């Protein structure tokens, strides 16, 4: 089975270092948790191709991906904000996922995905005309349309209220299918709801994933400190 | 993609800016500076320093009055202060001649009162014209400083019971200390390379600038070695001024955001009267010459000589070619800079250290052995105009390009959006407003420009500003005013069209 592998992975920025040696399987639901500033977002941004590795390798299904430009990696990413271009319509924003030139877009497929995330009929609107929850759905819809085997979520639902956030995570679970989903969060409830496995990022190391239930039942010292236990 | 294009353009720009200077240096090697050349250098620096000081001295009370008063038409006046930057210099000079010239309004009045006349020619006239052209820009730069004073600080001043004198001492003086050096140096640098003003109001051994001396050496004496030597001197002076200016933050003079309703206290009493007086005087000083051109030019419009029409076409052609060239190159440089290619920033500002006639002289020396300079007058004018306009376009676009890349760079990269699709779907829609503004600005500058064309053009192939200066030289003032009116319409029409296109984009 395909998996995302980080081997001898190291990033150094000024006096900050992050190391990782881990593997995440296709179809997995993984939460990345840890104190703020520990490097959760850096880890995700490195996988997505926005932060270069100082050492090590990154592979998907045995193929090196760490030299590929962000758009050619087998993944989609949802950022904390700025996931939609405000001057394009929702449908155009989705279409970019199929063809960045917007010339060869299956608009029927776009409408189908809008339907799946509960935005039927809103394709002609601009992002500013949508609510925060609807904007998140549109961004997720584009990721579904791109159908890449990895989906990275960098706290994209953090600005939504608890109920909306839970609803979005349920929608991700329902629609992501066989994709590997990696969710950065600072909220243990997200991890418990969504992720079977959890990666703890603390003290400069992204640890290998552990079953979420276990890690919260028996937290290592860094996680215990973060949870305030 | 944008990085590679930006790097290529930066390399080309550096070659086009430094190449002519290198040619000039080689040519200048054999010459010696004469005392007349040193006098030109002295006059250049003195007039630029006086112009700069006078512009800033007039701009401070005007900016202060505009900052603390609210009156009908204030917004219009602030907008109009941006206009002299677009106004063709030759038109401004024509207007000043109509007011302050021998047969002008002021001298007619003085004669009527039996008082001695004032002369607009020489140092005084050059400084007057430079104040007319640069005081409005300086006012806008300084006004920006006033409006950037945090409202919290003004509230604090009020809660401590500050009077106008204390506001001046504790808030306004520190602000001016930050803003004035950059403003004064910007005006100084502009006046160092001023050509059209000195061509008409200066001249003679007592009032010749280096820029004018270059022109005379090429056109009249055909002494290319001396022209090269003068050009080298000009590069040294401008380079020094730009280097000094780069240590000071340059306030933004154009652009939006001058309409914020600040809580600046508006004191009553004599201060109210003096503010009103300053605003009235400044309005009169700035509007008078323009009104004079309009009044004189309107009848002249009906009696335009035929040479005006091909000249108008040539001017428009220069603008239509030079503006997109300058703005396109500036956009590529701004995007490359925003994507981390830091070294292109200083290169984009490199033309500021040169001057039209320095570049022109270098190109003249380059082409002269092969073709008659007159045959390449228009292409050279397009090229030099575009190069000289590029820093302005770059300064408009760079901050917005930075915002674009910061906000959407990662998203575009994660979707593989790059190259032409990125330009079409992301850059053009998001930057349409500053692009339109930059196109309008460079277009207006190009239409009204009188510089390098004077060096190259023969009787044929002249641009409209050059034809106006020839009409003035022949004392056909009504026709000159008519052609000037046409030029103003062309310059502002072009600006208005481009700016309107920029504002037409969807806002989100």
Structure overview:
Helix content of chain A is 33%, strand content 25%. With 229 residues, chain A is an alpha/beta fold. In chain A, strand 1 and strand 2 form a beta hairpin. In chain A, helix 4 runs parallel beside helix 5. The longest helix of chain A has 15 residues. The relative contact order of chain A is 0.20. The mean pLDDT of chain A is 92. Chain B has 508 residues and is mainly α. About 1% of the residues of chain B have low confidence. Chain B contains 22 helices and no strands. The two termini of chain B are 26 Å apart. In chain B, helix 1 crosses helix 14 and helix 21 packs antiparallel against helix 22. Helices cover 75% and strands 0% of the residues of chain B. Chain B has a single domain, classed as Orthogonal Bundle (MetI-like fold), CATH 1.10.3720. Classes of the chains: A alpha/beta (229), B mainly alpha (508).
Write the layout of secondary structure elements.
The complex is a heterodimer of chains A (229) and B (508).
Chain A (H helix, E strand, L loop, with lengths): L2 E11 L2 E10 L3 E5 L6 H9 L6 E6 L2 E2 L10 E4 L11 H6 L11 H10 L15 H15 L3 E5 L7 H15 L3 E5 L3 H7 L2 E6 L2 E2 L3 E2 H6 L3 H7 L2
Parallel strand pairs in A: 2-10, 3-8, 3-9, 6-7, 7-8
Antiparallel strand pairs in A: 1-2, 1-4, 4-5, 9-10, 9-11
Helix pairs in contact in A: 3-4, 4-5
Chain B lengths: L1 H27 L6 H34 L5 H7 L2 H4 L2 H12 L4 H8 L10 H25 L3 H9 L4 H29 L3 H6 L8 H10 L4 H22 L24 H32 L6 H31 L5 H6 L6 H12 L9 H38 L4 H12 L1 H17 L3 H5 L7 H10 L3 H27 L5
